[in-house]
Design a protein that fits this description.
Elements lengths: L1 H16 L7 E3 L1 H11 L1 H22 L4 E9 L5 E4 L2 E4 L2 E13 L1 H68 L5 H36 L7 E3 L3 H4 L2 H6 L11 H21 L5 E14 L9 E8 L7 H68 L4 H36 L2
Parallel strand pairs: 1-6
Antiparallel strand pairs: 2-5, 3-4, 5-7, 7-8
Helix pairs in contact: 2-4, 3-4, 4-5, 4-8, 4-10, 5-10, 8-9, 9-10
């Protein structure tokens, strides 16, 4: 009795020394998307690009505002005297300081501010598009993992049924009521089902690893998806998108192309302003102090106004304008072509979604039929009215039907996500 108590104490102490396993990270689809957006480094870089564009815009604005500079100097001639027409003039040590305020203005500076604003808007659009892509990737992986889990459940259920029939067949062989070949056929089916389960488990783990990468998680983090496929799969909402009005301005690619057109148009104006004059104004205050006798010829206040007018550039500026005009026309052509292509893409994605829905409905009905056929043949096999070959064929057909069904679900989800991204409503 004492030895038994000691063994129990030893086992309990060993159990307490084992490291506690971390609980799984439980995530809904929305939580997974939010985490990916918050932790994704690509999106972080896109946000940094927005801040860089904002800084560049303020640099362009600052170039049109007054600039103030201060300077100070000290000169020591080491007692040198200058001979000036028989007169000896001492050059004493001196100190001076000056403040200069200047401003320069041209049409090119104004346009540079407008161009920098367009660049900032394009960075904003790119950041939003990156966020949309990340959320879509998470959604696709989340659905794919749920589909893989459902596939795994179907395969395990099928294995349970086939295993049960194999055990029944082997018992019949043992009592001499059936031939060994019948049991062997079902044994092969059991092995095939186990292999399919292993493959499904590997595929599921790959999907979880892809989610960990997007969520920037530790490789050992266990994930648990809190929403089921039935909860998330909204067939009616997916089909309703085909009746929505396609607004091109909501599409991020189209928004970026419009900004490119606007940018090209501003480049034409910028090159035209290269022929315009530039006006600059500067005011300077100077003060000088001599440490000894000496002349001070430095005026305390000066002002400069300068107008610079380009006269001849060997047609360089003219060719720049022509080149900018042609680039602008190219952007207009690209925009018009994209408008047509996006409308065609919208119709194609609607067609794909409708086909995916029809395939989903057909495969769901086929799965129900094949499941009933399998159950019927199973009962007949147990009663001796069907052969092992019929049983094996029914099992194979059911497995293929299950695989086709879950693939149809995934195709419908992917078609829905593609249409959502295009509409961006």
């Amino acid at each position: 009795m004492k030895s038994f108590i000691a063994a129990v104490i030893l086992l309990l102490s060993a159990a307490f020394q084992l490291p506690a396993q971390e609980p799984p990270l439980r995530l809904s689809l929305d939580e997974a998307q939010q985490m990916a957006v918050e932790r994704n480094r690509t999106l972080e870089n896109a946000s940094i690009d927005v801040k860089i564009a904002q800084a560049n815009r303020w640099q362009a604005i600052a170039s049109m505002l007054p600039q103030v500079n201060a300077s100070g100097t000290y000169n020591d001639m080491f007692g040198y005297r200058m001979d000036f027409g028989g007169m000896s003039i001492a050059l004493p040590s001196s100190a001076s300081m000056g403040v200069t305020a200047s401003v320069a203005l041209s049409g090119a500076q104004v346009l540079n501010v407008a161009i920098s604003k367009i660049s900032q808007q394009m960075s904003d659009i790119t950041a939003q598009q990156t966020e949309q892509n990340i959320a879509s990737q998470v959604k696709t992986l989340y659905y794919s993992a749920l589909v893989a889990e459902q596939t795994l459940d179907l395969l395990k259920s099928n294995l349970h049924d086939v295993q049960r029939l194999y055990d029944f067949s082997q018992k019949s062989v043992d009592v001499g009521a059936s031939e060994q070949v019948s049991a062997d056929q079902l044994m092969v089916q059991v092995a095939s089902s186990k292999t399919a389960i292993k493959g499904a488990e590997n595929s599921l783990e790959m999907l979880y690893n892809s989610l960990r990468v997007l969520l920037d998680l530790d490789p050992d983090t266990r994930l648990e998806l809190t929403e089921s496929l039935d909860e998330l799969l909204d067939v009616d909402a997916g089909l309703a998108m085909m009746n929505e009005q396609f607004n091109l301005d909501n599409n991020y690619n189209y928004q970026l192309l419009k900004k490119n057109v606007e940018l090209a148009r501003q480049q034409v104006s910028l090159n035209r302003w290269s022929l315009a004059p530039t006006v600059s104004l500067a005011y300077q205050y100077s003060a000088k102090h001599n440490f000894g006798e000496g002349m001070d010829m430095t005026p305390p206040n000066t002002m400069n106004v300068m107008v610079s007018v380009p006269i001849f550039s060997s047609l360089s500026n003219t060719k720049k304008i022509q080149s900018a005009k042609m680039s602008y026309q190219k952007q207009l052509n690209t925009l018009a072509e994209t408008e047509n292509n996006l409308q065609i893409q919208y119709r194609q994605l609607c067609y794909n979604l409708q086909n995916a829905y029809s395939r989903y409905v057909d495969q769901k009905q086929a799965l129900d039929v094949n499941k009933r056929v399998f159950d019927n043949i199973s009962r007949k096999y147990e009663q001796g009215y069907s052969s092992a070959l019929e049983m094996t064929n029914a099992s194979t057909t059911l497995i293929n039907s299950q695989s086709t069904y879950v693939q149809a679900i995934l195709e419908f989800v992917n078609a829905q996500i593609e249409l959502e991204n295009l509409l961006n409503n």
